[in-house]
Amino acid sequence: MHVFLTSSPFGDYRSTQPADFSGWNPANLFMENIKKCWIPNANILYVAADPNNYELNDQISRDFQTKFKESELSFDCLEVCDYRYQIHGDLQFYDVIVLGGGHVPTQNRFLHEINLPEEIQSFKGIVIGISAGSMNCARIVYAQPEEWGETNIPHEKRFLPGLNVCEVNVLPHYNAVKNDIIDGYRLFEDVTFADSYGKHFIVLEDGSYIYVKENSPVLFGKGYLIHDGQMHVLCEKNQYYNLEVLL
Length: 247
Hints:
Blueprint: E1 2-6, H1 30-37, E2 42-47, H2 54-70, E3 75-81, E4 96-99, H3 104-113, H4 116-119, E5 126-130, H5 132-135, E6 140-142, E7 159-161, E8 169-171, H6 174-177, E9 181-182, E10 185-186, H7 187-195, E11 201-204, E12 209-213, E13 216-220, E14 223-227, E15 230-235, E16 240-242
Parallel strand pairs: 1-5, 2-3, 2-4, 4-5, 8-11
Antiparallel strand pairs: 1-12, 6-7, 9-10, 11-14, 12-13, 13-16, 14-15
C-alpha cells in the first residue's frame, strides 16, 4: 500500500487566490512520487467526508476528475462512496482510494459504518488522504477541535479509532489555521499543545505531505512536530524528513 497524507493539494486552504498550478500541487516531489506507483487507467474510489451531502460529493467528484486529468494521471472510473453507494467487499476493484476533506468525526463515523478500517487492511493500491481524510488514516486519530463547542469534548474523547494504515497523526493547513480561536481558546497554544503530552502530532502546511511506503513515513515539505506541549520545525520546503525516528 502507498499512502499519501496531504493537507490541501489543490491550493492554499481558505485562500481566495487561484493556485499557480493546474491539477495536483507538484511541490515537494509530489507528482514524481505518485507517478512511480500510479497504475494507468486506474479505478478510483472517492470516500466522502459527509455521506449525506450528495450535491457536494458529486461536485467534488467532478473536480477530482478534472484534477487527475490535468496532472496526467489516467483513470477509467471515479466513483463516489457515500450513503448512496457503500462498499460491500469490493474494495479490491479499485486501484486508488481518495479520502476527502471535511469534518473529522463525521467522516470517522462513516468509515466505521462501511467497515473500511477492516476492508482497507488488505488493500494493495494507493490511498490519498486530503485534510480530514489524512487525519483519519491514523491508527488512533486526533480529532483536533474545529467547530464551536468542540473544545468542551473531554480530552480522552478527542482520540478516535481510525483506518490504521499508518501511525502518523496529521494536523493540516497550519498556514491557514494557526491563529484560529475556538470557544475563546487559541487552537494550538491552548488546546492542541495541551493534548500533545505523550503524543506526536505532525503539522503540515499546504503543499506539504507525508508519503508512507512499506510502513515507513517520510515528510516532504514544510512541517512541524508538536510533542509534550512544544512545537518545532522538522522540515523545510523542498526537503524531506524520515519520521520513523519519531514514531
